């Protein structure tokens, strides 16, 4: 089976290859420009996805604007507090909102969502834009989403991870993960109280650019147990562990690319493009992804298969074909008692297969059986190809469909609870199943050679590491020195050949005795709990050059037993320390700061007196000026402490409360850089502005002074001299937008593409 062709649609699948402009298909004669599509109606009426009497309600619901829904991100210590703010501050203010003579309800909680942590806003966008209470609420939503306390997500899309039933020790795989909303839910489940999880999540997507969306998205919910990979999920490689063991997953989510007709309420273009061929052509890829997932699942493990398509050819047909490919080894789990308030429809045990040949009227042709279809091909009545492929036999209901418990699958219909459409099936592997499944397609699917080269050039970290370190051939035998320590011992010698088409930076672990690690331990008074042997860098030689990531032991085991290019690892762990470029570098004992992303990971290991307390007075000054002199702060404990502190990074806890014209509902941890005479809040300017708006109701941040070329003298660079000959220290992050903002314990990242998907209301 080939990859879907044509442009990608909202669900990452192939879109209708025949475009609206394809005159030969007489498109406009077939498809209305309004929200209707005769082929869609004919197809789904025939499928009996609901009783006939409900058809009009179904269509009517599909034509309505989809309500905005969002989750309070579950693993935050402050989730309840955020939920209470919505419930007790905003909702009461949104009673009795009237617009153009009509009353609109305030946001309501989704009854089926655990802990009532998910919300729905029914008011249409224009009401939100034009009425003060909703406008205020929107500002709150945008701010909290930016900092990662809320996550905008379609209600039905929240469902699959809930049925995955993830526990903190689980080894999980999210096969088609981008942009990452379900990935975030799995991370939350792995880290329920933001404790260091022993579990693993590999978040994978075949689209390289989208893996970077994943990296940004998961930056809001950093996890030491996270790896992001870039693979065709149907070819996902086997992963080696210590002692030659092979990794098997406790939980796998296969949220596969699909035709996406369940998203008709928000992707209106689907009304014009829908065709039965879309679902038919995706079936085989979906099946291969599901079968690959089945092979990698631990006996007794759970696998959730989901699509946002109503189409049985992408849903029940895939499930039954996969079950029949492994008779007796998997069963569909009866989850009718889980999430009892969630209305769902049972899966179908029989369905129809329709073909839409590329002829003028795009008439649907039904084929009762595969044999009938073959006969039609033979007689020349049907082209041998639907999208050039021919329909696979597995599209038709198998003879044993009635025995597979397909009714345990769930179809979410829009008119049941005012949502989009979705299909979810929970599968479990029998506990007695052999780990090495004899029908495993592993051998045939693990070769990275099959993957086209599509990687970007190496990043600056790699280049820098290559410049700073000996060439790989010689480094293996080089004697370790202070500055280029040997990589930590690996359990086995890596014999795998590198896939040179994959050009992300390598990963290696820093020696726990490295001088830079010692400087971190000294600066942050890191306790014995600090996982100093789990510090990873993005170069081959264990050199902490710019960024240090923290991983957990299972991630380390994977990285040390598998060539990173074979696994196509885009990122791993949490960015915990970033080197601070500074004009005063030589005088600074510890040249590392904690980026806001990683602050929560470092926090539990910090010794007494490391975390400094501050108020909104200090925050105001730090936001107003990029490098406020210590002098400029009000007299008090903060100023006294700051005057005495060594240069370097401080972790500051800004206490909750109302002060200085601002309000902070929850405490917030942020990194502050202490220079000789001045301070600097170490978040990027965009995040400063967001924080300012959120806390002080206005953007109080002055524009940053021009960045100084550190190779030039201040006077050459035209730099402002701050005080007593001290030059302003330009906080050099790894690119604007990279620094996160750890508010209420979590982080946010800027990413234009994610923003597009996440624009609230
Ligand atoms: C429905 S979206 C996934 C949505 C995601 N699970 C979420 O909740 O944010 C499908 C994703 O599958 C990816 N995809 C398409 N074909 C794939 C393949 N063969 N292997 C892995 N991912 C694939 C697309 O790039 C797209 O990001």
Automatic annotation (TrEMBL):
Domain SAM-dependent MTase RsmB/NOP-type: 58-430
Organism name: Kwoniella dendrophila CBS 6074
Pfam families: Methyltr_RsmB-F (PF01189), Pre-PUA_NSUN2 (PF25376), PUA_NSUN2 (PF25378)
Subcellular location: Nucleus
Annotated Polar residues bias: 433-449
Keywords: Methyltransferase, Nucleus, RNA-binding, S-adenosyl-L-methionine, Transferase, tRNA processing, tRNA-binding
Keyword Nucleus assigned: yes
Domain of life: Eukaryota
Name of the protein this chain belongs to: SAM-dependent MTase RsmB/NOP-type domain-containing protein
Gene Ontology biological process terms in this record: tRNA methylation
Chain intervals with Basic residues compositional bias: 1-10
Biased composition (Basic and acidic residues): 490-506, 709-725
Biased segments, Low complexity type: 468-489
SUPFAM superfamilies: S-adenosyl-L-methionine-dependent methyltransferases (SSF53335)
GO molecular function: tRNA (cytidine-5-)-methyltransferase activity; tRNA binding
Residues that bind S-adenosyl-L-methionine: 176-182, 205, 232, 255
Family statement: Belongs to the class I-like SAM-binding methyltransferase superfamily. RsmB/NOP family.
Cited InterPro entries: MeTrfase_RsmB-F_NOP2_cat, MeTrfase_RsmB-F_NOP2_dom, Pre-PUA_NSUN2, PUA_NSUN2, RCMT, RCMT_NCL1, RsmB/NOL1/NOP2-like_CS, SAM-dependent_MTases_sf
Active site, renumbered: 308
Any GO CC annotation of this UniProt entry: nucleus
Region of interest: Disordered: 1-28, 433-506, 701-735
């Amino acid at each position: 089976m080939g990859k879907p062709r044509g442009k990608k649609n909202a669900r990452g699948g192939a879109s209708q290859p025949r475009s609206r402009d394809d005159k030969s298909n007489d498109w406009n004669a077939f498809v209305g420009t309004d929200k209707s599509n005769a082929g869609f109606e004919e197809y789904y009426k025939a499928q009996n996805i609901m009783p006939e009497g409900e058809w009009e309600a179904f269509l009517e619901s599909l034509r309505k604007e989809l309500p905005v829904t969002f989750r309070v991100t579950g693993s935050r210590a402050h989730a309840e507090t955020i939920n209470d703010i919505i419930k007790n501050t905003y909702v009461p203010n949104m009673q009795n909102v009237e617009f153009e003579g009509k009353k609109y309800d305030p946001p309501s909680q989704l009854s089926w969502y655990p802990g009532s942590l998910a919300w729905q806003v029914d008011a249409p966008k224009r009401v939100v834009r034009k009425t003060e209470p909703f406008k205020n609420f929107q500002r709150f939503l945008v701010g909290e989403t930016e900092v990662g306390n809320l996550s905008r997500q379609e209600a039905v899309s929240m469902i699959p991870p809930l049925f995955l039933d993830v526990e903190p020790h689980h080894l999980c795989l999210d096969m088609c993960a981008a942009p990452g909303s379900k990935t975030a839910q799995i991370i939350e489940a792995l880290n329920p109280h933001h404790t260091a999880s022993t579990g693993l999540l590999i978040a994978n997507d075949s689209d390289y650019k989208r893996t970077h969306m994943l990296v940004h998205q998961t930056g809001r919910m950093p996890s030491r147990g996270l790896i992001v990979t870039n693979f065709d999920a149907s070819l996902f490689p086997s992963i080696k562990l210590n002692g030659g063991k092979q990794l098997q997953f406790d939980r796998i989510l296969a949220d596969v690319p699909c035709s996406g007709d369940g998203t008709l309420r928000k992707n209106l273009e689907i009304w014009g493009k829908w065709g039965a061929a879309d679902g038919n052509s995706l079936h085989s890829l979906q099946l291969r992804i599901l079968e690959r997932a089945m092979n990698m699942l631990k006996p007794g493990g759970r696998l959730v298969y989901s699509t946002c398509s109503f189409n049985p050819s992408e849903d029940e047909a895939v499930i039954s074909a996969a079950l029949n490919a492994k008779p007796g080894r998997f069963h569909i789990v009866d989850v009718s008692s889980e999430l009892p308030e969630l209305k769902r429809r049972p899966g179908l045990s029989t369905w129809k297969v329709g073909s839409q040949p590329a002829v003028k009227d795009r008439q649907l042709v039904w084929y009762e059986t595969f044999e009938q279809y073959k006969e039609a091909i033979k007689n020349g009545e049907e082209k041998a190809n639907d999208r050039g492929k021919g329909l696979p036999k597995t599209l038709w209901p198998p003879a044993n469909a009635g025995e597979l418990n397909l009714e345990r699958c769930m179809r979410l219909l829009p008119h049941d609870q005012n949502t989009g459409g979705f299909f979810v099936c929970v599968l479990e592997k029998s506990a007695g199943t052999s780990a090495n499944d004899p029908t495993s397609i592993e051998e045939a699917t693990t070769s990275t050679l099959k993957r086209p080269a599509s990687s970007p050039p190496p990043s600056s970290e790699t280049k820098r590491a290559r410049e700073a370190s000996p060439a790989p051939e010689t480094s293996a035998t080089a004697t370790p020195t202070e500055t280029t320590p040997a990589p930590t011992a690996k359990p086995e010698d890596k014999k795998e050949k590198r896939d040179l088409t994959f050009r992300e930076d390598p990963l290696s672990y820093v020696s726990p005795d490295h001088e830079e690690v010692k400087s971190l331990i000294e600066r942050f008074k890191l306790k014995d709990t600090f996982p100093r042997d789990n510090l990873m860098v993005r170069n081959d030689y264990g050199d902490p050059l710019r960024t240090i990531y923290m991983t957990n032991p299972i991630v380390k085991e994977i990285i040390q037993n598998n060539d990173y290019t074979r696994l196509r690892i885009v990122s791993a762990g949490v960015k915990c320390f970033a080197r601070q470029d500074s004009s005063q570098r030589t005088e600074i004992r510890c040249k590392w700061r904690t980026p806001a992303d990683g602050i929560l990971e470092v926090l539990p290991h910090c010794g007494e007196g490391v975390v400094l307390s501050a108020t909104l007075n200090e925050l105001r000054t730090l936001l107003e000026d990029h490098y406020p002199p210590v002098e400029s702060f009000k007299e008090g404990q903060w100023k006294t402490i700051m005057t005495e502190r060594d240069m370097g990074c401080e972790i500051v806890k800004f206490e909750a409360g109302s002060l200085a014209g601002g309000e902070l509902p929850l405490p917030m941890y942020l990194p502050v850089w202490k220079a000789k005479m001045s301070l600097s809040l170490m978040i990027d300017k965009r995040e400063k502005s967001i924080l300012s708006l959120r806390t002080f109701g206005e953007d109080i941040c002055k524009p940053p002074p021009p960045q100084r070329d550190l190779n030039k003298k201040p006077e050459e660079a035209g730099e402002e001299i701050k005080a007593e000959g001290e030059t302003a220290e330009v906080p050099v992050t790894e690119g604007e937008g990279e620094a996160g903002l750890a508010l209420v314990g979590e982080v946010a990242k800027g990413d234009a593409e994610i923003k597009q998907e996440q624009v609230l209301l």
